[in-house]
Write a structure and sequence with these properties.
The chain has 440 residues and is an alpha/beta fold. It is built from 15 helices and ten strands.
Length: 440
């Protein structure tokens, strides 16, 4: 893990109590023994993050349901095998079981949940949650997949029987493997952001190796793969991106996502999971995934030329000097294509920072001269610099993006990270890079 200063402080405080006067080598031996298991668990709890929710990130789940799960169920000849890596207290396992049920998957389909913390797994195994955890669950699935247990709500018994849990540290090999082959789907969301760059890449390679041919790896929107390792290939959806393992022959992937037909086509906006569910701003639910009106908020204050440049970067076409036809088209390009085309820029190996021509950096810098508070563009520039081996410059861009978000100056444009998550991603990136610099 790339420990933040706060995590390092918590770890030091726990060590001071648990280690006492024991020398470090002897204490490490103790932690590796059966007698030290309880101490090790306390140290793990000091640094890991177990924040999760039922149906977390509805934007991504909506894309997963339509572009990955439905086609996989339709083509499956038997039960599906799904793994939630870093399942925390079980909310993601319950979400995946509910989605499998809704999609009509074989009743023998299963979900494995793994985590590094045994105490957290003990809670996860109950698949029982506080009543407020239902706030993002689509109404139809609430009645179909959950039952009341006093003041708590639990996954229905028939679905609970399809879940299993085991202790697993993603730094340890071998990784879990289901009988008869690999997993059809692996979810590993909001876990890799806490890893060092080396551990991040190593974990992705290991996860890819546990996918069945045509299987899908799902990472969070804060964890784009700037270089997609073989045998994974990028699957683009309208407001999310996934990574699919090609079959043994390298044949075309069985799952297709719609490509952008025109910059003028608006993308329906899906309610972000940080928005309120009730009260002012609450929206009508369709019965599946909550939605908001399809007209996106205008990117007020964006210079037309900045909008053009940003749109070009998002499309991976910065070397094409041909301008968009109008200021209005430039604005629409930023509004409608932010989520999927930013994902394309940071996730596609063909246009990722290591393969992107210098014109991408030039375009982003010129864009930010014209629109300094376009935080999405500044975050992309930070990613570009970080992956290009320029951490000090990257920290500066992340800090500027964070400042724009925190002060409310950030220009509002749809992006693969909403403002709350953009804030978290920038803050963690700053901590990660500064901690690495302090160790050098």
């Amino acid at each position: 893990m790339a420990l933040s200063p706060a995590q390092a402080r918590r770890l030091d405080e726990r060590l001071a109590v648990l280690q006492g006067h024991a020398l470090a080598p002897q204490y490490v031996l103790h932690l590796n023994s059966a007698a030290g298991a309880a101490d090790l668990e306390q140290l793990v709890r000091a640094v890991v993050v177990h924040k999760t929710d039922l149906f977390r990130d509805e934007v991504q789940l909506a894309a997963f349901r339509s572009r990955v799960l439905a086609p996989r169920v339709a083509s499956a000849r038997g039960p599906l095998r799904v793994w939630s890596a870093g399942c925390a207290t079980g909310e993601e396992v319950a979400t995946l079981l509910a989605l499998l049920e809704e999609a009509g998957a074989d009743p023998a389909s299963t979900v494995l949940g793994t985590d590094i913390s045994e105490s957290v797994l003990a809670q996860a195994r109950t698949l029982s949650f506080p009543a407020e955890a239902l706030r993002r669950v689509p109404p139809g699935l609430r009645e179909r997949c959950f039952v009341w247990d006093g003041r708590r709500v639990a996954l229905a018994p028939a679905l609970r029987a399809r879940a299993s849990f085991r202790l697993h540290n993603l730094m340890d090999t071998p990784y879990p493997r289901p009988e008869g082959g690999g997993f059809d789907v692996i979810f590993c969301r909001n876990v890799l952001i806490y890893f060092t760059a080396e551990a991040f890449q190593r974990t992705v390679v290991e996860l890819a190796g546990r996918l069945a041919p045509g299987g899908t790896l799902v990472l969070s929107s804060a964890e784009p793969l700037l270089q997609v390792p073989p045998p994974l290939k990028l699957l683009r959806a309208e407001q999310a991106f996934f990574y699919v393992r090609a079959d043994a022959s390298g044949a075309a992937l069985p799952i297709a996502a719609p490509r952008m037909e025109t910059l003028r086509t608006p993308v329906p906006q899906v309610r972000r999971d940080t928005e309120p569910v009730g009260g002012q701003g609450a929206r009508r639910e369709s019965g599946k995934f909550a939605t908001v009106p399809s007209t996106p908020a205008p990117p007020g204050g964006v210079h037309p030329e900045a909008a053009r440049l940003f749109a070009r970067v998002l499309e991976g076409s910065t070397s094409d000097a041909a301008p968009l036809s109008s200021d209005e088209e430039a604005r629409r390009a930023v509004e409608s294509n932010g989520a999927r085309e930013a994902a394309r820029f940071v996730a596609d190996s063909d246009v990722g920072p290591r393969a992107t021509p210098p014109s991408a950096e030039v375009a982003l810098r010129r864009c930010l001269e014209l629109a300094p508070d376009l935080a999405a563009a500044r975050y992309l520039l930070g990613l570009l610099l970080e992956q290009g081996g320029r951490p000090d410059e990257a920290v500066g861009e992340y800090r500027r993006a964070l400042g724009a978000v925190d002060t409310g100056r950030a220009v509002s444009v749809p992006f693969l990270l909403n403002p709350a998550r953009l804030r978290v991603a920038c803050a963690h990136a700053i901590e990660r890079l500064e901690s690495a610099s302090a160790r050098r």
